[in-house]
Design brief:
single chain, alpha/beta, 3 domains, seven-stranded mixed β-sheet, three-stranded antiparallel β-sheet, 14 helices, elongated
């Protein structure tokens, strides 16, 4: 081990014998009492020394035997130490790709704060490279989600959509103006490649590749993000469209903008949390007229360009990508079995829990709250701070 105080956490003395690591309440930790010699020892924990050398240097400054090991144990338990040699073979392979790692250093620093164990940050960052995510939709929300996931180190990001890029699909973080007229799926693939930290941009596809339809689905995905250009399909998703995902146990997260409202969630963990069918059954019980409304909304009658405020779409895309990454990294974000909404002009985010419905065939009903959130994936332990 080469102990290193996590550089992402700001360090300051609250008073002469108490050090605070971290500025925000969510991750701040106070350590004390710390005398002058121990403070000097903390300065040596920069990742360049193994424990034997640290013990020697501690003796040179007059610290008793065992002081180094005690301090390292104490700071590790508080989630304050990292190890630049930890993380396993995948992390070692990532460290060898200096250019890639330089692009991802801010993400690595953030992960090191969120995950307390030494090497936990780079281990998760390296694991992203082997993951595969499919984004269904290449509009203002979907294309931006795909770009952010790719830029965050997710190794395989696929985008499905049909038709051609329209001028109103263009966004600062999504499809560029040069893509107007191209097939949406082809333009989205180029966007994903340009955004990836380890893949160089490719030339624009020739005109012969323009304007053809998109493709279907395949198993083995880490998750699916459902971000249709028509936000109604995220606000009131069709349960039939998710039947294959439920059957194969594929996690999927809904997101979109409908009229002046942005929605993120639910994140559906098949057989464990409420699905699109549960959502509609619950809403129909509260509003018996809803099926009639949905039939008319989904009738396919011609509509003008959907309302999709660009700032709202960008916020929805950012939140969606963040929740997807949280899940991919082994945690359960706040959209698990819940939906978050924000409406213009006040932009007040609010959440609604979605309960598994007894009439739905997804299999989530009847489980305890603990069963809904256990056995789904690795989760870090929350430390008392």
């Amino acid at each position: 081990m080469h102990p290193m105080v996590k550089p992402a956490l700001r360090r300051a003395w609250r008073e002469r014998q108490t050090v605070q690591f971290g500025a925000t309440p969510a991750h701040a930790v106070m350590v004390g009492p710390v005398d002058t010699a121990t403070g000097a020892l903390i300065e040596l924990l920069d990742g360049t020394r193994g424990l034997p050398l640290l013990r020697e240097e501690a003796r040179d400054i007059g610290l008793p035997d065992g002081q180094v090991d005690g301090l390292v144990h104490r700071l590790t338990a508080a989630g304050l130490l990292d190890d630049p040699t930890a993380g396993g073979p995948a992390a070692d392979a990532l460290r060898k790709r200096a250019g890639v790692l330089d692009r991802l250093r801010p993400d690595l620093a953030s992960l090191s704060v969120v995950h307390p164990e030494p090497g936990g940050g780079i281990q998760r960052l390296a694991a992203r490279r082997a993951m595969r995510v499919r984004v269904r939709g290449a509009g203002r929300v979907g294309a931006t989600v795909a770009a952010v996931l790719s830029a965050s180190g997710v190794g395989h990001v696929e985008v499905l959509d049909g038709g051609c890029v329209e001028p109103w699909d263009v966004t600062p973080g999504g499809l560029p103006v040069e893509a107007v007229g191209m097939r949406r799926d082809a333009a989205a693939r180029q966007l994903v490649r340009r955004s990836a930290p380890d893949r160089p941009p490719r030339a624009v596809e020739p005109a012969a590749s323009r304007c053809r339809g998109g493709g279907g689905g395949e198993p083995g995905l880490s998750m699916i993000v459902v971000a249709p250009r028509d936000g109604l399909a995220a606000y009131a998703p069709d349960p039939a469209a998710a039947e294959d995902w439920i059957a194969t146990g594929t996690p999927h997260l809904y997101a979109g903008v409908v009229e002046g409202t942005g929605v993120v969630g639910p994140l559906v963990l098949p057989g464990s949390t409420a699905c699109a069918g549960c959502l509609e059954l619950n809403r129909t019980e509260r509003d018996p007229g809803r099926p009639r409304l949905l039939a008319q909304w989904r009738s396919g009658r011609g509509r003008a360009v959907p309302a999709c405020d660009i700032a709202l779409a960008s916020a929805v895309a950012g939140m969606t990508a963040a929740h997807a990454l949280s899940f991919l990294d082994g945690d359960l974000p706040a959209t698990t079995g819940a939906r978050w909404e924000a409406s213009l002009p006040l932009f007040d985010w609010r959440s609604e829990g979605i309960t598994p419905h007894s009439g739905c065939l997804c299999g989530a009903n009847g489980k305890s709250d603990r069963e809904h959130t256990s056995g789904i994936g690795p989760q870090h332990e929350t430390m008392a701070r």
